[in-house]
Amino acid sequence: MIRFILVSLFLITFLILSIPIHLIEWIIGKFNPQLKNKSSQNIVQWAFKVILFISGVQLTIKGFDNVPKDKAVLYIGNHRSYFDIVITYSLAPGLTGYIAKKEMEHIPLLSTWMKFLHCLFLDRDNIKEGLKTILTGIEYIKSGISICIFPEGTRNSGPKMLPFKEGSLKMADKTGCPIIPFAMTNTRDIFENHFPKIKKTHVILEYGTPIYPKELDREQRKFLGAYTQNIIQEIYDENMK
């Protein structure tokens, strides 16, 4: 329980003490949006790295060279834990917005940081609003902001991934940006498998070879979600061994 208490105290303290930083970041953004983007990313990445340190996460990273450092991409991965976001965002080489469920938009202070980092809030029960979110994501990628999405739609506790929602990969198909598939192994062992305890855990994060939709054949492109899911599942299964 000690790690859980320490992480909770750090997170609450960070969110409260960052209230004046919100104003500073807002002012910076009015005069220099690029500086604001970079500073917001650095602050949150630092906070996430502290959380990982307190939690005792031992991280093995594979295939990080597959992640382009000079262009926007669409990150697609499996989703098993709250720590998936903490781990992957702490490693993001460039500005990256995450697709989050609509309910996250109503969490005070946390949602402010998410908006600073160009996160998008998806209403899964409203098809029209969901389409608007995807279209906004397309515009973000065109402007150089990477997007990360977990197409299972929820955290999954089983060894096999839930079917990917095909619409979520339209952002790559419409922009031509590379899809970076990634698989995370053992993240549920940090927290969810023994809630409320946080335990020291070895996590494997592997990035696969970039997928360029326009280079796929017609059938693969038609079912891009299933194609990408198979790749991620293979990486996950291999690392589980």
UniProtKB/TrEMBL annotation:
It catalyses: a 1-acyl-sn-glycero-3-phosphate + an acyl-CoA = a 1,2-diacyl-sn-glycero-3-phosphate + CoA. Coiled coil: none annotated. The chain crosses the membrane at residues 6-31. Its EC number is 2.3.1.51. One of its GO terms (biological process) is phosphatidic acid biosynthetic process. CDD domains: LPLAT_AGPAT-like. Pfam families: Acyltransferase. It comes from the Bacteria. Residues 73-187 form the Phospholipid/glycerol acyltransferase domain. Pathway: Lipid metabolism. GO terms for molecular function: 1-acylglycerol-3-phosphate O-acyltransferase activity. InterPro entries: AGP_acyltrans (IPR004552), Plipid/glycerol_acylTrfase (IPR002123). The HXXXXD motif is essential for acyltransferase activity and may constitute the binding site for the phosphate moiety of the glycerol-3-phosphate. Belongs to the 1-acyl-sn-glycerol-3-phosphate acyltransferase family. NCBIfam families: AGP_acyltrn. This is 1-acyl-sn-glycerol-3-phosphate acyltransferase. It comes from Lachnotalea glycerini.
